Amino acid sequence: MLNVGQLNDGFVLDHIKAGKAMQIYKFLELDKLDCQVAIIKNAHSNKMGKKDILKIEGCLDFVDLDAVGFVDPDITVSVIKNGEIVEKKSLSLPHEIKNVVKCQNPRCITSIEQQLDQIFILTNPETKTYRCKYCEEKYLRRD
Amino acid sequence: MRHLLSPLDLSVEETNELLDLARDISKNPDKYSHKCEGKKIATCFYEPSTRTRLSFESAMLNLGGSVIGFSSANSSSASKGESVSDTIRVISCFADICAMRHPKEGAPMVAASKSSIPVINAGDGGHQHPTQTLTDLMTIRELRGSLDNFTIGLCGDLKFGRTVHSLIKELSRYTGIKFVLISPPELRVPDVIRDETLKANNIEFTEVERLEDVIPELDILYMTRVQKERFFNEEDYLRMKDFYILDAAKMAMAKPDMYVLHPLPRVNEISTEVDDDPRAAYFKQVQYGVYVRMALILTLLGLN
């Protein structure tokens, strides 16, 4: 059993589907933040069997929760202050995500237009389908 | 300010009003011949087009307005690397309305977001072609009398054919339309159309490969060209370009009032022997296209 120290001030992303922690790490651009991050992979979970956890020191304002909701709306977010959980946030599939993923359609205007935001719109919540705002190409999730 | 980026930007009521206006223009062209005096349309065509560009230009000239523009990316600042956003800001200073064709999908949407004049999508890659759709609607309504209760066969390149995508979306808003989608497996309609337009709205449709099997049940046959410019691979294009050829023998199997539409240009997919058949409507369609674009220019400029 691996022991990771408790957070004093920061937040925990829990119930991440096993193997997805690095994807979240990348989407949130945590490598660019000057703070401590613990990535726990394949932790035991009664509910999920295995899960990933991210413990991040610092302010939640830096985090694009829409990006987290886009990857997996079932992830739970706990805000920690003075070592205590002070808030639990539930996520949902965001209606729109901006500059989280890129359109893969080579015919899309986003492939050539400078400084154009990459915007995807939720077009079918049941199938979690997102489409490029400009060309309507479906974002293919690599699960 | 309104733009036209997708056929669905106009409600069914607005579409019907526009088609009524187009019909009135066709019956009384003189009434409209000075409506756009002093107005300019910019036709910004980043890829070649004969019909659509000349149709827009003809429409504006018929309304008493004038025309500026370019007809290929090479003759515009795009060849110097200028963005669509910058180009439309500049064009907005010169013209009152802009019709834009661009090989990249979503380019007119980008233009509309930065424009201070109405932008009309005149075709963006394999995505949308709303004024062709309005043309198709006018043709069907003028020939059949109504836009409800008929079976339409769409044949050829249903994957990259933007006119097909726009027409399916638009007709899905009318009642009693049955779609027969005729294509090789590689060129079937994209899932965005199948899932989010046809299935999501419980619209009756079938997907088949052989035109001969279904032609007797069609009220409208919409033929399309397999477009060489949409293929990245020459071999795939050569394999599929002559997959369908509509000829007199196939027309003999069709209903006596089944009209044939085609957005043109036609290559081999309709034999020239069909041209004299009274059911061949593709050249009438071109004339209706001018009336519809006149009606659209008037509507977007608030001059209707």
List the helices and strands and how they pair.
The complex is a heterodimer of chains A (143) and B (304).
Chain A (H helix, E strand, L loop, with lengths): L9 E8 L3 H7 L9 E9 L3 E9 L7 H7 L4 E6 L2 E7 L5 E3 L20 E6 L4 E4 L11
Antiparallel strand pairs in A: 1-3, 1-4, 2-3, 4-5, 6-7, 7-8
Chain B lengths: L11 H16 L12 E6 L5 H12 L3 E5 L13 H11 L2 E6 L4 H8 L4 E6 L5 H15 L5 E6 L6 H10 L5 E6 L8 H9 L5 E4 L2 H4 L5 E4 L10 H7 L7 H5 L6 E3 L20 H19 L4
Helix pairs in contact in B: 1-5, 1-11, 2-11, 3-4, 5-6, 5-11
Short characterization:
The complex is a heterodimer of chains A (143) and B (304). By secondary structure, chain A is mainly β.
Q: What is the total domain count of chain B?
A: 2
CATH topology-level fold name of the largest domain in chain A: Alpha-Beta Plaits
Q: What is the number of E strands of chain B? A: 9
Quickly count the domains of chain A: 2
Question: CATH H-level name of the largest domain in chain B... which superfamily?
Answer: Aspartate/ornithine carbamoyltransferase
Helix-strand category of chain A: mainly beta
DSSP E strands of chain A, number:
8
Radius of gyration of chain B equals 19 Å
From the 3D structure, determine the CATH topology of the largest domain in chain B: Rossmann fold
Helical run tally of chain A = 2
Strand content of chain B: 15-25%
Mean pLDDT of chain B: 93
- Through-space gap between termini of chain B: 14 Å
Strand order of the biggest β-sheet of chain A: 2-3-1-4-5
Indicate the structural class of chain B: alpha/beta
